[in-house]
Protein: Methylmalonyl-CoA epimerase
Organism: Muriicola soli
Amino acid sequence: MNKIEHLGIAVKDLEKSNALFAQLFGTAHYKMEEVASEGVKTSFFKTGPNKIELLEATNENSPIAKFIEKKGEGIHHIAFEVDDIRAEIARLKAEGFTILNEEPKKGADNKWVAFLHPKTTNGVLIELCQERV
């Protein structure tokens, strides 16, 4: 893993949260995107070298909707940049981590993504990200 790629924050209302985080960071979001396969709308902010992804559910069956129902709004995941997502999935699986999707899938911000089950990472949902080329 190279670095933290972004922090994902689950929100109920993306429009209101965009305004809040724009005020907090002193800058507007730079990108919004819907990932229909995951039932989520995303908005990205940059503050210094760091990225924050806001996530709003687009339907009640979305993982984000379920997360907010159980835990409320807040930090949803930590994403790490990797050079070779398939190799990293294989390495982590061999180390005993539970992979939620063993085949990378298309995520927001032009990334291939895969997730590790929080039960094997001290309760933290970990996302692996690799730039799609």
Notes: The chain has a mean pLDDT of 96. The longest strand covers residues 3-11. The beta strands are 3-11, 31-35, 40-47, 50-57, 74-81, 105-107, 111-116, 126-131.
